[in-house]
């Protein structure tokens, strides 16, 4: 036999989960930061788009406002210049008509010149001298160097000339001069008529705070780009000191945002040319005024978006961390809930859940098989060696099962010594059967543990999911039933075995349940009774002892022999209470017999291994003996050979205690088990009963004869008591006589009978 080496660390091991395994619920944690980032992105996109739109709208609004003002301002300038031109034209006409009689004062009379329309009107002679002027007490000045004088003198067709602002030599005020050439009747140069106006006159009174705001600007430009008049933010600027080439640039740009060359203020500016005169207007609105609302809104949007971003990111971070912690805790809990702590394998809960999901989802008819593995002798080893060793052994078993099953299988531990393997696939049954065979082969190798080796037996049940299977519990129950059947089959030979579930197993299981109920009822109503069979001395023929044999008087089925219910009662544990009833009844009966003379020497009672392992036989025996005043040496307990050979420490301990009490232990059915004669020496018994299968061979079967001979001589050597069972005929009696004084039992000497018919004393 090959023994597996014990591993140093029996700890956990990994087995890869197959696709069968329960799908964990999808985690949404990653979605929180991603979603939040997308949301933040969306917020910013919306905010920036909104800001852009509002900016565009604000600029359009400014443009339309300045454009409106510019149109009316241009019209206004057009009219103002026209008014001046009318005066220039009128003077030119009147003067040319009659230079000698023309008197400039008539202008005032006709109210063509007043303090608020014009500063002064002057007629300059052909040499630049002042001929007439509306300014009283004017000093004689020479104006021949004035640009308008030179322009008109050199160009007869110039028309209306508008000068740049100049410091009037007569008025001593800054003024704009509107001039036209004066001609003699022959067309030669006769001088210039000059109308001087205050430059502010062009712009004052037109400034509208509502339309232009406090930072607005009105300006009038000449076609050469020179500033003629300007009104900004309600103040007049000096136009001369700032010829402002940038204004000239406006001739090309005709509007837009630019920094004012005079006050450096950034303004939205609209340029509009006069319809009739070589002048243009500029209407400006300060960027600050124009965009104040927009900027306010923009800041608000930015603040809002920023605030939302901070809040969202903080919240997302918090939620993510919290959820991650929760998820980790939940995963840990789930792992704990789904895992068998000892082996690290999935537990029953995970198995049933996974099966349930798989069945609900896929309905894998014929493609899902369970291999239910149950260890036959684990409990005894566990009781004998202690739980720690038992645990290590289970870990070894789990490891070996995992190895045999391979990486693709799902292996779960579903109970103390129960494991389930799940197989999925097209040929699930065949795969399960082959797996079961492999497991059985693998169990042929003993498990090495702490220097010892233990042969484990496994009973394996296989069930395949089919249309008749209701759900996962049904499938599990079927595999369990099949395992149970395999255990029944394997038990006599003490072999590992597998069985595939068949429907009749279910019927049998139902019957089992019924039988258990019947047994329960039988115990309550004490439907059991005992018959006694004498054990006699071969030489004297006197009854030495009486073996109590149980029967069941079933209310419907009549008397049932022990072979038909004792094995079942052993399997189901009912033998423990039944055994107690038997011992009690037997002792009561025996104490009665003791009163008659000569009473039997001893009482033989059969006990089952189950009573030794799971019941408290020692206490029961002691109580019965005490109660009925029976000498312990008069009680023999018959135990089958296989029970003893299975040799759990619990059995041995109980037997030892019983023997210490004085009770004798007899090995029943000797020869049917696996013990050889030499093993008798090491067994802790007081006697043997040779099984009737050997007695049957007397006197013809040489092997049987040799066996009987050997056992008898060995028993004598070892000082063991000896009973030959099943003696039925004279021939056997005769052959046995050669051994002298031995005890015999059998139909020849007396069948098992009711206690009332027992005749104590010499047998027939
Ligand atoms: P066992 O302990 O070997 O009991 C002897 C069986 O052999 C009895 O069958 C008896 O009727 C039968 N027998 C006796 N002489 C002869 C003979 O000359 N020829 C043949 N062919 N058979 C003979 P029974 O009463 O049917 O009991 C069968 C088995 O049931 C017993 O075998 C024993 O293992 C078990 N059993 C009976 N009573 C009890 C009990 O109270 N407790 C337990 N645990 N087992 C019991
Ligand atoms: Ca017996
Ligand atoms: Ca027997």
UniProtKB/TrEMBL annotation:
<dbReference type="InterPro" id="IPR000160">
    <property type="entry name" value="GGDEF_dom"/>
</dbReference>
<keyword id="KW-0812">Transmembrane</keyword>
<dbReference type="Pfam" id="PF00563">
    <property type="entry name" value="EAL"/>
</dbReference>
<dbReference type="InterPro" id="IPR035919">
    <property type="entry name" value="EAL_sf"/>
</dbReference>
<dbReference type="InterPro" id="IPR001633">
    <property type="entry name" value="EAL_dom"/>
</dbReference>
<dbReference type="InterPro" id="IPR029787">
    <property type="entry name" value="Nucleotide_cyclase"/>
</dbReference>
<feature type="domain" description="GGDEF">
    <location>
        <begin position="366"/>
        <end position="499"/>
    </location>
</feature>
<dbReference type="InterPro" id="IPR043128">
    <property type="entry name" value="Rev_trsase/Diguanyl_cyclase"/>
</dbReference>
<dbReference type="Pfam" id="PF00990">
    <property type="entry name" value="GGDEF"/>
</dbReference>
<keyword id="KW-1133">Transmembrane helix</keyword>
<protein>
    <submittedName>
        <fullName>GGDEF-domain containing protein</fullName>
    </submittedName>
</protein>
<feature type="transmembrane region" description="Helical">
    <location>
        <begin position="301"/>
        <end position="324"/>
    </location>
</feature>
<feature type="transmembrane region" description="Helical">
    <location>
        <begin position="30"/>
        <end position="49"/>
    </location>
</feature>
<keyword id="KW-0472">Membrane</keyword>
<feature type="domain" description="EAL">
    <location>
        <begin position="512"/>
        <end position="764"/>
    </location>
</feature>
<dbReference type="InterPro" id="IPR052155">
    <property type="entry name" value="Biofilm_reg_signaling"/>
</dbReference>
């Amino acid at each position: 036999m090959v023994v597996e080496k014990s591993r140093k660390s029996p700890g956990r091991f990994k087995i890869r989960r197959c696709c069968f395994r329960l799908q964990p619920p999808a985690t949404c944690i990653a979605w929180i930061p991603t979603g939040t980032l997308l949301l933040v992105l969306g917020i910013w996109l919306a905010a920036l788009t909104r800001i852009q739109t509002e900016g565009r709208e604000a600029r359009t609004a400014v443009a339309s406002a300045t454009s409106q003002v510019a149109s009316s301002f241009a019209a206004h300038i057009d009219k103002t210049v026209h008014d001046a031109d009318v005066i220039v034209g009128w003077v030119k006409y009147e003067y040319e008509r009659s230079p000698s009689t023309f008197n400039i004062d008539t202008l005032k009379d006709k109210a063509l010149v007043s303090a608020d329309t014009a500063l002064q009107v002057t007629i300059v002679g052909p040499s630049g001298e002042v001929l007439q002027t509306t300014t009283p007490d004017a000093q004689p000045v020479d104006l021949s160097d004035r640009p308008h004088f030179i322009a008109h003198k050199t160009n007869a067709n110039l028309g209306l000339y508008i000068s740049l602002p100049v410091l009037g030599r007569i008025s001593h005020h800054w003024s704009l001069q509107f001039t036209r050439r004066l001609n003699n009747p022959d067309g030669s140069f006769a001088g210039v008529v000059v109308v001087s106006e205050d430059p502010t006159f062009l712009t004052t009174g037109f400034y509208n705070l509502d339309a232009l705001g406090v930072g607005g600007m009105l300006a009038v430009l000449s076609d050469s780009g020179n500033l003629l008049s300007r009104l900004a933010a309600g103040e007049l600027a000096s136009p001369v000191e700032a010829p402002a080439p940038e204004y000239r640039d406006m001739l090309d740009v005709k509007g837009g945002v630019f920094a004012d060359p005079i006050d450096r203020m950034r303004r939205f500016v609209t340029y509009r040319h006069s319809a009739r005169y070589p002048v243009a207007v500029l209407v400006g609105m300060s960027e600050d005024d124009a965009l104040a609302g927009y900027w306010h809104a923009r800041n608000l949007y930015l603040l809002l978006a920023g605030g939302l971003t901070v809040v969202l990111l903080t919240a997302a971070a918090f939620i993510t961390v919290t959820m991650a912690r929760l998820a980790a805790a939940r995963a840990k809990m789930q792992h704990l809930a789904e895992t068998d702590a000892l082996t690290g394998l999935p537990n029953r809960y995970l198995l049933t859940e996974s099966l349930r999901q798989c069945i609900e989802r896929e309905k894998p008819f014929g493609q899902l098989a369970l291999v239910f593995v149950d260890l036959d002798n684990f409990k005894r080893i566990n009781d004998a060696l202690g739980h720690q060793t038992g645990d290590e052994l289970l870990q070894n078993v789990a490891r070996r099962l995992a190895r045999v099953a391979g990486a693709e299988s799902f292996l779960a531990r579903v109970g103390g010594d129960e494991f389930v393997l799940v197989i999925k696939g097209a040929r699930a049954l065949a795969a399960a059967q082959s797996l079961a065979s492999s497991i059985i082969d693998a169990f042929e190798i003993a498990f090495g543990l702490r220097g010892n080796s233990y042969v484990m037996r496994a009973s394996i049940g296989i069930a395949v999911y089919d249309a008749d299977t209701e759900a996962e519990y049904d499938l599990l129950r079927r595999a369990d039933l099949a395992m149970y059947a395999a255990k029944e089959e394997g038990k006599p030979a003490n072999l590992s075995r597998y069985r595939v579930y068949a429907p009749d197993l279910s019927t049998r299981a139902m019957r089992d349940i019924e039988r258990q109920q019947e047994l329960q009822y039988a115990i309550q109503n004490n439907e059991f009774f005992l018959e006694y069979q004498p054990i006699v001395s071969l030489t004297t023929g006197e009854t030495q002892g009486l073996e109590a044999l149980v029967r069941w008087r079933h209310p419907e089925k009549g008397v049932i022999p022990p072979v038909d219910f004792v094995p079942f009662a052993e399997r189901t544990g009912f033998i423990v209470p039944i055994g107690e009833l038997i011992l009690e009844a037997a002792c009561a009966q025996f104490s009665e017999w003791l009163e008659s003379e000569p009473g039997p020497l001893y009482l033989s009672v059969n006990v089952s291994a189950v009573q030794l392992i799971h019941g408290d036989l020692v206490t029961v025996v002691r109580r019965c003996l005490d109660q009925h005043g029976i000498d312990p040496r008069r009680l023999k307990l018959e135990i089958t050979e296989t029970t003893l050979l299975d040799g759990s420490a619990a059995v041995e301990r109980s037997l030892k205690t019983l023997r210490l009490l004085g009770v004798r232990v007899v090995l029943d059915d000797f020869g049917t088990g696996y013990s050889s004669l030499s093993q008798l020496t090491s067994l802790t018994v007081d006697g043997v009963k040779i099984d009737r299968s050997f007695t049957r061979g007397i006197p013809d079967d040489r092997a049987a004869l040799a066996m009987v001979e050997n056992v008898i001589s060995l028993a004598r050597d070892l000082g063991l008591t000896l009973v030959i069972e099943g003696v039925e005929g004279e021939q056997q009696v005769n052959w046995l006589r050669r051994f002298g004084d031995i005890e015999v039992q059998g139909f020849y000497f007396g069948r098992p009978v009711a206690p009332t018919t027992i005749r104590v004393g010499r047998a027939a």
